[in-house]
Target: Chromosome partitioning protein
Amino acid sequence: QGALPRPEQTRIMIVANQKGGVGKTTTTVNLAASLALHGNRVLVIDLDPQGNASTALGIDHHADVPSIYDVLLESKQLSEVVQPVVDVEGLFCAPATIDLAGAEIELVPMVARESRLHRAIEAYEQPLDYILIDCPPSLGLLTVNAMVAGAEVVIPIQCEYYALEGLGQLLRNVDLVRGHLNPRLHVSTILLTMYDGRTRLASQVAEEVRTHFGQEVLRTNIPRSVRISEAPSYGQTVLTYDPNSSGALSYLEAAREIALRGQSAQQSIQHGTVEG
Ligand code: ADP
Ligand code: MG
Model:
């Protein structure tokens, strides 16, 4: 893969949508692998108690493995739980174990409960180009921790009939967190997933999303692809499972767009064309 421009600062991308099954985890692991294959150092933080991102990256996450739960609740260092992904150089994962299911409630009485992930990331000393956070399908304290820790929200949208339902609530939460906890937070990227170009519905939904959001929507759509859905059962991303499949190529292209957009955002800040 051709190398892409590396960001000057670590870009922290929060992959969120409180709907389940829209492609959050698939997008997190495949974008992360794509960015790593493009020459970046990338950390995936699995913030879903299901641990699907850990599984998809072939990372051991049985109950005794040091995990993101220990970082959030037991003040373990992030460096103590991060594992390398074996078949992709430059890709790392902080796994989730099933005890994370209790974290939403256990976090409630804790000091600085919304910013524990932020603090852990701040204290992490390894150089990283990207951190991608795979959120659970809810807007609770785990997702809030992700939103406090980063600046960019990535929303995968499945091209189906109810695609836009619930997005209002997600966007209001982003506004709330920006207003009260993290002024840098914004929706930077919307990615259409499981796109089936043969159906009218998919193209209508895509058009509606593009009309509604405009420039945040990536030009690349992720096609519905059997190879994408098979890869996790081999503990692989589609990038290594079937590198020439349409699914792999679409995630590589989406990663390229994200990298290039980040660069033009940095340049326009340097040239003073963007305020703040
Ligand atoms: P979420 O994390 O939002 O719950 P997932 O990423 O786990 O969603 O995706 C839900 C299901 O859809 C999974 O079984 C996954 O393998 C499948 N899937 C995701 N993206 C695609 C795609 N582009 N083509 C085919 N299946 C997909
Ligand atoms: Mg998931």
Remarks:
- Residues 24-25, 48, 52 surround magnesium ion (ligand 2) (CB under 6 Å).
